[in-house]
Design a protein that fits this description.
four-stranded antiparallel sheet, rod-shaped, mainly beta, four-stranded mixed sheet, 19 strands, 40% strand
Length: 225
């Protein structure tokens, strides 16, 4: 039955008598239930999948600890952990993924509150798994991670050695990255390249079909590079 106060009554025909009043508590924890499975995303993907931003907190997630009859086990301090399944941390696109934040929580009044969880790398098909000893793991809804705001530049391809007044055979390629080290694709940026004097020589940077730029050349980034 449900936890709370109960009265035991014995009856026969038109006669009845109250034997005792008792307090009913929940049984041992046997199952977990996620009460808000990522249903309040920052935005929605056209297909309806929740979308979150790299290195920004996702929803506060509440995991309830239940007994066999679905009652909340409020008197038990159960340890619940959350993780990204191993196949997601190693095989989504080209880099290892990390789940950041407090990943292990002790239940209070039968509920574990996970907040401040973040994921670094962009990707699709993410799903969080919640575990506790002796109970079946439960998954969250499937969601996506998109790149965040640009915070740094990364030289992906170095330029070749140069011949005076000749266009570089191998041009540098610079990626625009967010806090999670993702390439930022959603915006247009202007990147400037500079060349510096070495020893006693004065060096100038030239660009094809342009005049000398006094050591600086600006170019708009396309798809984050």
């Amino acid at each position: 039955g449900k936890p709370g106060r109960a009265i035991v009554v014995v009856s026969s025909a038109h006669l009845s008598v109250m034997l005792a009043e008792m307090h009913v508590t929940a049984g041992n924890p046997t199952a977990l239930r996620l009460t808000n499975a990522l249903n309040t995303p920052i935005t929605d993907y056209p297909e309806g999948l929740p979308v979150y931003i790299s290195m920004q907190p996702i929803d506060t997630l509440l995991v309830e600890v239940l007994d066999t009859f679905g009652n909340l086990v409020a008197s038990n301090s159960t340890i619940v952990s959350v993780e990204l399944p191993s196949h997601q941390t190693s095989s989504l696109n080209d880099a290892h993924r990390m789940l950041l934040g407090e990943s292990t929580v002790v239940s209070r009044l039968g509920v574990c509150r996970f907040y401040g969880l973040r994921i670094d790398r962009k990707g699709v098909g993410y799903q969080l798994m919640f575990h506790s000893a002796g109970m079946a793991p439960i998954p969250s809804n499937v969601f996506e991670i998109w790149p965040g705001e640009a915070v740094s530049l990364l030289v992906q391809e170095q330029p070749s050695d140069a011949v005076s007044q000749v266009v570089l055979a191998e041009q540098p390629v610079v990626a625009i990255r967010d806090l999670g080290n993702n390439t930022v694709l959603q915006a247009i940026f202007v990147i400037s390249a500079s060349i510096y004097r070495l020893a006693s020589q004065d060096l100038s940077l030239h660009a094809k079909h342009s005049n000398e730029m006094n050591g600086t050349r600006g170019i708009a980034a396309v798809r984050g590079r």
